[in-house]
Amino acid sequence: MAKKNPESSSVPALQGDGRRRAVIGAVTPQVDDGRFAVKRVVGDVVEIEADCFADGHDVLACRVRFRREDDRTWCEAAMTALGNDRWRGTFTVDELGRYRYGVCAWVDPFLTWRHDFARRIDADDLRIAARTGADFMAAAASRARGEHRRRLTEASRKLREATELDVLRHLALDEEVGILAAQYPDRRHESTYPVEFPLVVDRERAQFSSWYELFPRSMGAPDTHGTLRDCEACLPYVAKMGFDVLYLPPIHPIGRERRKGKNNTLLASEDDFGSPWAIGAREGGHKAIHPQLGTLTDVRSLVAAARSHGLELALDIAFQCAPDHPYVESHPEWFRHRADGSIQYAENPPKKYQDIYPFDFESVQWQALWEELASVFAFWAREGVRIFRVDNPHTKPFAFWEWAIARIKQEHPDVIFLAEAFTRPKVMHRLAKLGFTQSYTYFTWRNTKQELTEYFTELMAAPGRDYFRPNCWPNTPDILPESLQVGGRPVFMARLVLAATLAGNYGIYGPAYELLEYAPREHGGEEYANSEKYELRRWDLDRPDSLAPFIARVNAARREHPSLQRGQLAFVATDNDELISYARVDAASGDVILVVVNLDPHHPQSGWVSLDLAALGLEPERPFQVHDLLSDAHYVWNGPRNFVLLDPAQAPAHILHVRKPLRTEHDFDYFL
Amino acid sequence: MAKKNPESSSVPALQGDGRRRAVIGAVTPQVDDGRFAVKRVVGDVVEIEADCFADGHDVLACRVRFRREDDRTWCEAAMTALGNDRWRGTFTVDELGRYRYGVCAWVDPFLTWRHDFARRIDADDLRIAARTGADFMAAAASRARGEHRRRLTEASRKLREATELDVLRHLALDEEVGILAAQYPDRRHESTYPVEFPLVVDRERAQFSSWYELFPRSMGAPDTHGTLRDCEACLPYVAKMGFDVLYLPPIHPIGRERRKGKNNTLLASEDDFGSPWAIGAREGGHKAIHPQLGTLTDVRSLVAAARSHGLELALDIAFQCAPDHPYVESHPEWFRHRADGSIQYAENPPKKYQDIYPFDFESVQWQALWEELASVFAFWAREGVRIFRVDNPHTKPFAFWEWAIARIKQEHPDVIFLAEAFTRPKVMHRLAKLGFTQSYTYFTWRNTKQELTEYFTELMAAPGRDYFRPNCWPNTPDILPESLQVGGRPVFMARLVLAATLAGNYGIYGPAYELLEYAPREHGGEEYANSEKYELRRWDLDRPDSLAPFIARVNAARREHPSLQRGQLAFVATDNDELISYARVDAASGDVILVVVNLDPHHPQSGWVSLDLAALGLEPERPFQVHDLLSDAHYVWNGPRNFVLLDPAQAPAHILHVRKPLRTEHDFDYFL
User: Fold this and answer.
1) pTM of the complete model
2) Can you tell me the ipTM of this complex?
3) Known catalytic residue: A391?
4) Beta strand B351-353 with B357-358: parallel, antiparallel or unpaired?
């Protein structure tokens, strides 16, 4: 039988706010109606829009309000009407951390009166309305102070005393008095949108970063295990290429139990070094350093040395344990146990990963587990690390990440978390929503013009663009995509240009990338042959065919051009499907970059690029210069359609800086 | 200085729900994240979708839950995975009133175990996993009762005791046991979407109704003021045309002060009857009946007589007062006062409407005003009226309507409110969201194929389709659209067919419509010349050129064809812009109607109609019959492209019932 539920009456209560006539809706940007934060970086102008309207034809006043989350006081900025009941207001975020924003609106009796007054004709009407106006001005005066109060009181008195129609009209519609009175509005019946939308402000590097991943153990002298000190010695090499984030795979002790051998073989031999992601041994776990790599002092030294080269250290946090990780003994309750009492290793039946123990987040001791894992980030943050690349976050509960990231950022709002989640789209989006600063993407497998255009168009769409910051990787230690296996040098160049110019954040796994490493472990697979994940590699960084100088040019273009850092992406039509083209436009600086890439590594491709000149800030009638930042060549282009020929044997891409129109004879003033 | 706000910590609390690994989002349908109700009618199958997923690869169970709003007990229905982490579940609403629905999901350990078990190969693994499975079955047994508990206990015991791999596999994956155990899931870590979405279930007429508006005072004998009794005498005429709602303009006493004369002239003469929308005089206000129309007894009689003709009475509720409305004296505080002490009449400077006093919803006594206005609906509802056409709701506060409609529907869930808001799109949508059952539309001014296609495509889009029920009117007493002024009989026929077949709800203002009244008061205006709003009219209902028989055919088609009542609308391509075509398809009954209208009233137009045969449930290889419900002609069509010729001099439209494919020789079984 149906039980009556007295709380869920559908009739709104007849209380207090019946005279709030303004309604507010469809506030943008927003993520899931304020459940998650919108992301911006320091210095951004945040543009808020909302539908605001009231019954009837009275005049509305709308404001966007905003505050730091830990500050009770709201700031306000006026919103202006865009038409069709849509309003827009902006504010600038100049501090790191969490903000809130919202929208309020009210039917403004003074503005309504003034709007109507200006349209009145009848003399009696004008006289009666003037008296009402004088009352409104007096009321505004009562809300003002000092000089403003004096002036409004005076304006009210004059309007009340005036009798001549012309004088009365002049006084009532006086522009200065109007602006002044509007500053002291009657907000008794103000409506406030019920959601206080969260906003996270990160530092600039959250949206613009160039990552270089390397295995420190491969950086030593021949036949020796490299160290963090060796890594430090590589900094000039990495910095010269123009990267700003140096990212290291896990630097912790590597498990010995069930250690994997070279090329992921099941049994390691004595001289195998194991995978850095098999974390933990008797020397320690996630807060310890692999003895062969160095010490905490070496980490501190590396952080400082990197900084002096314009590089920031990023650590890899992988929440999983080797069987000999100290947690296994000290906290067996953090792991799942099989019916035979053994600890459950990672598996995806029938596949088994017996060298890895996943944490059991359904453990009775889940709170202690959460606290301990969060303390790992806190530990490294205290050592000066401010960027974490998080391994497989999609295999740990979403609620944990939301809590852990908020907790770390509360103390260190400058921390950046990159989610290494190559998984289903909604899972990747959820991780970005709940707090990850940057996200790995499907770029790694998007090769054709159509694939790239569709994917980046999707990434630019709301609300994703407000929380999902793509970080594009053409390769990783786990992924040697098929395109790199077969396309040779032109593909390595093209994929690098695409990654570096389609998104603000990108990275490569080197030196495998610049040294054109292309051999897979097995045909049809994406694992590197002789992967550094399981063995030391020797890299000849001075090889003449290295892409390092090319990469340096691409990164230089990124550093010099604000449009490649934060510019709007717009695809540009070409008449050849092997040629992809897009513009990056930074409205604030006026900087414009046009990229054209030949996706065919084997043949020269040519075609016509059709520009939207107005969108690029160009006049249709005047020729303009484009400067290829890769080849340093200059071209004069004219009109919207321009010819491009790209020979992959030389360079598969243009990164064209679009320059101001050339001077013509019309620029001279012949009549001086 | 910034004040710390301790309540707004951004770190979620480390409490209770850390093991809820399933997340739920993007629930549809929904209106503004549950701020407003989704609308359905009795008998509808409500289809709910949501994104549901968890970390890792464990198996999820998802359910849609629903309840009547006044019932605490949730019902549940299983959801099934559609791919890409999208799930769908359905339930049927079989009662009037308000419901709530939501979604819950959990990582199901038993289903995960079963999924993994089926993929295991290793014998040791299978044996160990079987023991875990036996535990899960025992746990399910502990949540079950009676026979189910017995069977699950038995299954658990057998699995635990089995040793042979084959037996073990058989017992673990037994289909019946699997289904049974899944009925008693471990829901300790269940996630529930935080919003309980509201749903309003109306009666069928909310989505399918045919309105006929008439002025009772014009229904009398020549030169006499018509009465409600005269109106009763007209019922057979209206019923014969196939309408099911008889809608009357306000039936209240008409103000005498500042009464308007014929054609809206400023001063009425002695024998002018005034506008029914100038409500209230010494005889009473919104709860009284104009003495010249009759008495409350006559209203009751009309309600009953209408019902016997299959018609339902709809009253017009216009919340505004003539200067001599009793409220003006008894409740001067419900009106705005000018600075000279007089009551503020309606105005939109410089225009004045001195015969109308609007209510002041910002009155100090707003609560009493709200109560009184709501009591007007309640009064007429008590007299058996269940449909209200609300005049200009957009000039009264949204909050008032939300409260008033909820209040009336709480007592009378079968009441239908039609919003007469011809205003800006977002205002119209807000009124529909907050509770109006049906809404007037821009159909009245949408004439071309492109205009109609765009507008109805917009109306079909989510979320509008879930709360905005269009009611299409080709004319109203206020609006004689330009098309009807110049297009003659073919336009009246075409516009009627469009209104009656594009939407479930439509209406006409008659007899002006069927008698082809086309003269405007002034060139360029939309007011009728000699409008019934200000004077009595005599209508010759038996005129041979009346459209009444044509209208009857159109309404008969609507009554006989479920697709015209609730079928999905899909536009159909034609190669002639003067020919618009669309299908209405009712999936449940298989009923399909195809409409083709010639929008050119002056010339025959022909062209090819391109059908999506599969969408209409037709086989590509077989001819099919279409039956024109207007002309009674039958055509045999074949394949997707078919020729249509419509001569406006005869009939500007086809309403084609698409019939099952014709029999062919292949249907005979020669081999019997």
Assistant:
1) 0.94
2) 0.94
3) yes
4) unpaired
